[in-house]
Model the fold of this input.
Amino acid sequence: MTDPTGSLPALDAVDHTILRALHRNPRAPFAEIGATAGVHERTVARRLERLTSTGRVRFTAALTPEYQGEGVTAEIAVRCAPGRVHETALALARRADARSVEVATGDLEVYAEFTTPDHDALLTLIDSAIGRLDGVVDVRSQVVLRLLLTASDWAPYDDRPTDVRRRVREGRPLPAAPAVDELDRRLVALLGTDARMSTTRLAQRLQVGETTARRRLARLMASHVLHLRLHADPAVLGYPLEARFRLAVTPSRLEAAVRLLAAEPAIRHLVLTTGTSNILGYASHRDTVDLHAFATRVFSGLDGVTATETAVLMRTYKRANVVEAGPGHPSLAAAQSVPPAVPQAAPPSAPLSASPSPPPRTV
Done:
């Protein structure tokens, strides 16, 4: 039996137990997970290998520049001529400085999130790179002022909110970000290649003592600046419908709106931005009925909202710095890019070309 996309066998209770355990602790020992699931640790390893082989379940590890006060994060909407949406999305997804790329219902636009070293680099990206793409009609940008929730705070398996979500919901600030040095960055880069690499192996690769490696890892994992997690395509977990929403909220009611939104488990990403609409969020749902109920209940309960805009994602090209390899994405296999450890600006002359590919299929 397979899921509706035909790319992954339907998950059973053991699969869900494994994913639940690894969501809580991506480095949990297989023996410990097996004991919880009632299977041998070799079964856990075999099941996980089957899930990750599809590309729709994977481990990710990255430092969050917004929490560290590094660089500029911008939400960019690229309006395209008819017939050029897919090609443009592919070109953007190939860029290492693009963290996410998607196409949603509504205007012929590609939405992308970029991280650049500074505002000058952002201007170069928009004007000298994206703006020169064939088929691009217009480019709009909004700078992220405050990162509130990320996909690491979306926990479909848990009723308990993450510490970040709890703090946002209660209106409390996040703790000060720990200082991160070059050794920390090298450690995170190694975790990006193998999130479950043993502490012994990490120490060997870093050429430090095992105690140092263990202490550094524990400090980073206890902080909110490291996002080390098992990332699963929401559709795999039973939430195939993803929505993108923008809200315009009067400044006097903004904090109250943020606290109410943070209390909604369906919301997996939430930021404050510049622009006429100052809240941008993403939510995952089981179907359109669920989305309608969510939007009706949540948005109508927010005071000070002067405008709302909701769209359904038709295709995700890149998510959490990784190019999607799900169904309908055969042309993305060669588009994988590796995010830089520190935000890097693209040279002004950097081309943004895309190979010819079939028209997008609505998913």
Q: What stands out?
A: Residues 1-6, 336-363 have pLDDT under 50 and may be disordered. The CA atoms of residues 96 and 339 lie 5 Å apart. The longest strand covers residues 305-319. The radius of gyration is 20 Å.
